[in-house]
Amino acid sequence: MDQPMRMKSNGQISIVLSTQKKKTFSKELRDTPVVPKAIPPEHTALKEIEDELGALVGMEEMKRMIKEIYAWIYVNKKRDELGLKARKQALHMMFKGNPGTGKTTVARLIGKLFLKMNVLTKGHLIEAERADLVGEYIGHTAQKTRDLIKRAHGGILFIDEAYSLGRGGEKDFGKEAIDTLVKHMEDKQHEFILILAGYSQEMDYFLTLNPGLHSRFPLVLDFPDYNIEELMEISNRMMVEREYTFSHEAEKKLKEHLIWVKAVLSPMSFSNGRYVRNIIEKAIRSQAMRLLMLNSYDRHELMTIRSNDLVFEEDQE
């Protein structure tokens, strides 16, 4: 038998239970918050990718998005197993951010994850730019673009600086490449994944060049610039990977330089992690020359980058 209900003056509904105890519910039904638990052991694919994502500095929003994509795909498979509707969703993506923020690295990780989940049959990454798609005469561009898509079958087609396809105006062959991509994104949306990458503002403009573009990218990931502490963490990880270490003075000099360069360069001119990598590789060469001239090769010196090994471009002007 239904329990009797009474309307209270504060607008809540009170249900009188048979045990004479009362339980109140708000008019606006609220789900009980779910406390996140550790990843179950059967999700080995996600655990492996999480370990690799953990090696990346920053990018917390991107890491959350990757987990959401995994969860959606996994739960969709469970729905399918129980006979529930489980429509496939296009997984084409857009990466927006400045150079050196990890876009290509993340694209490779996504390929590995989707291969482990059987979303992709190969999981490989085909990197391309404008010159790889745009031809020299009418019809050439469409064929070059189709050939790239064919090579990407079962994997990911990653086009960096994709906005350059729309820079030439209506008569430029880049528009033909865009139109060909749009057609194949729909016709073969479950056979490959297209990831377009580039500067945020330019990519926003790029989406306006074809009315079908915007709706075909359900997943947009922003890659913010690294702050100083993140850049220093990246540099130290690179050093550990190469079995080098900074002296205290060298680390201080690098940090001061990064503070300066981020202040004077525009965000679009600063290449983030790539900039740090170039500094380290140059410092390693400088250290090698210094040790050669000193004829000093003990283990400590072979591993130590000192402040005078760090030579920046402005120091040479």
TrEMBL record:
Gene3D superfamilies (UniProt xref): 1.10.8.60, P-loop containing nucleotide triphosphate hydrolases
Keyword line: ATP-binding, Nucleotide-binding
An MF annotation (GO) of this entry: ATP binding
Range of residues in the leader sequence: none
InterPro entries: AAA+_ATPase, AAA_lid_6, ATPase_AAA_core, CbxX/CfxQ, CbxX/CfxQ_RuBisCO_ESX, P-loop_NTPase, Spore_V_K
Domain AAA+ ATPase: 89-227
Entry's transmembrane regions: none
Pfam family, any one: AAA
Family note: Belongs to the CbxX/CfxQ family.
Protein name, per record: Stage V sporulation protein K
Protein source organism: Neobacillus massiliamazoniensis
